[in-house]
Amino acid sequence: MSKGDRRNRLYRAILVSGIVMVIIFSFGRLASAGDPSGASTGTRIDVSVDQSEPSSHQQKQVLDEVGHVKVSVNFIWVFLGGILVFFMQAGFALLETGFCQKKNALHVMMTNFMIFGIAVIGFYLIGFALMFGGIGALKQLGGQPILTHESTLGGWGLVGSRGFALSGPAYDTGIFLFFLFEVVFMDTAATIPTGAMAERWKFSAFAVYGLFIGMILYPIFGNWVWGGGWLAQLGMKAGLGNGYVDFAGSSVVHAVGGLTGLMGVLVLGPRFGKFKKDGTPRAIPGHNIPIAILGTILLVFGWFGFNAGSTLNGGDLRLGVIATNTLLACCFGAVAAMLYMWKKTGYPDPSMSANGCLAGLVSITAPCAFVPAWSAAIIGSIAGTIVCVSVFTLERKFKIDDPVGAIAVHGVNGIWGVLALGIFADGTYGAGYNGVGHAVRGVLYGGWSQLLAQLVGASTCIVFVCAVMYTFFKVQDRIMGIRVAPDIEMGGVDQEMGVPAYTESTDLLEGGV
Amino acid sequence: MKKVEAVIKTEKLDQALDALSEIGYPGVTISEVRGHGKQKGVTHHWRGNVYTVKFIPKVKIEVVILDEDLPRILDAIVLKSRTGNIGDGKVFVLDVEEAVRVRTGESGMKAI
Question: Can you give the pLDDT at residue A34?
């Protein structure tokens, strides 16, 4: 059997098993408890007025209308947040492509583009159920208790198991919308390593990775923090503040992506020529820095949906504070990085300023809902400084080659973000978060146990992601190899795409028809 | 007849061409070239590391002129292209044996 035949057979097997899976999930449980049409989502039960007294038919109708409008506002808000986060995909694609070399531009663009397709399939079939299968009723989306099963160990939640392939009772408009919002967060995490591992990652290895992170890695850690798992229970069950709090995903999304990138780089090794024989790093300049800056600005734009949208509730007017904190941290991060580089190198380095801006955003993502403006400014400024120091330390001391700075931006600052929450949360918001009655308070406001919860969460994130992803990449490297052949790397990984990013007009003359 | 080849900074091209045109030579040939002189390239900074671009983009003007115009042309090109910094470029003058206008077949001085 030739290589081509074998490959065809493999593709056919994958296709058939995929179809079979979808059929099983779709018809497995026909009993439907959800509300697919949306007609009965949002009624008087969503209105928080005393309805115990008998009231007239008209009053009930009015209450139904009010409930429907209330839930509708939340629907619009969550949808808007979701599509804003989706647009961050464009930001990542441009940022990473601009920071890489011309000969690899299409490959980088393609990984940023296809991670969406691949990882979303994994999240749809399996990941969503693992992450949110035990979250319970989504009250603000008018939902019924459908995602209700969490596997536990001694009462500590480990993984959910309802809503596979959005089938059966999960065929519900509220759950579909919630899926849309959450799947774009997963994709943000999944696309981060494409930057750190760019310019030498084999595309087929990338595709397998994409399925794994969307299906298994991201959902499991996500369940522990956002799906009602054991880190979220630290408050209720162990008395540590409000449990581990990561409002919009400094750790769940960014540290997971950044640390995964770090593990990938450790297994891949640096690009050819990145380090001289004596170990000093060489500059490998990006080929389109203006487009990278445009990408950064698109990311800022999308980030408003990322953070403010994470209220999942258009009626939760804390969203004004969240959005402005996001903006402040982003600006202070950019300026801090610019000043740091200006002082150190004599130039207001554009690529590091972009990294500083993103570092500010990453670090404010966890605490954005719980801190006042001055804290957001400090958190962002520290992030902008940390990112420069980390880029230099990772590259010069540890010989880690990250073409776009993703590990420093998302990994290091993701961890800083969740710790910052444990320090700066001021106790004005978050009463009831993770089932704990009081508001979220950090060390500066007497909440030492909150910082402890943050430390537990951050260390768990580091240990879990690093252990699983290092093993994954190592095993994958043994089985299929995750790095391209040397001649492909030298000539540009665009060769894997069959066409360069920037085709020349002479190609037409030479190629012939 | 002389041929003047001037390798100058790209941003000085417009001024040099204007000067040539004023003297009576609107017809020129230019090309984008790369090179370096004694300074051996220029250094840039990328994410805290310094790197050198060895060959710097320049523009080369080629124009064929009458002998008596040579001093004015040289003056014009040199003065218009000068910034006083390294990398201003160089001008070379060559003898030209013959010139032919393709459209009419005229040759020699009439052709330029």
Answer: 83
Rounded to an integer, the average pLDDT of A160-185 is: 94
Check CB contact under 8 Å for A341 and B49. no
pLDDT at A45: 84
Count of positions (residues) in chain B:
112
Among A307, A361, A309, which residue's Cα sits nearest to residue A330? Answer: A361
- Report pLDDT for A512: 46
Question: For chain A, which domains are there?
Answer: 66-498 (1.10.3430.10)
Integer CA distances (angstroms), A108 to A27, A87, A99, A192, A404, in order: 38, 17, 10, 11, 11
Q: Which residues of A touch B45 (CB under 8 A)?
A: 283, 345-347, 349
Pick the closest to residue A111 from A403, A472, A459 (CA basis). A403
Among A342, A349, A355, the strongest candidate for a mutation testing the B interface, having the largest count of B CBs within 10 A, is A349
Partners of residue B57 on adjacent β-strands = B34
pLDDT in tens, B50-99: 999 889 999 999 999 999 999 999 999 999 999 998 889 999 999 999 99
Q: Of the candidates A269, A289, A374, which has an alpha carbon nearest to the alpha carbon of residue A102?
A: A289
N- to C-terminal Cα distance for chain A?
32
Whether A265 and A400 have beta carbons less than 8 Å apart is answered as: yes
Residue A161 backbone dihedrals phi, psi, to 5 degrees: -155, 40
The secondary structure of residue A440, as a DSSP letter, is P
Contact A323, A369 (CB under 8 A): no
Structure tokens at B105: 């077949």
- Domains (range + CATH), chain B: 2-111 (3.30.70.120)
| Partners of A152 in beta bridges | A157
Whole-angstrom Cα distance, residue B20 to residue B5?
Answer: 13
- Three-state SS at A83: helix
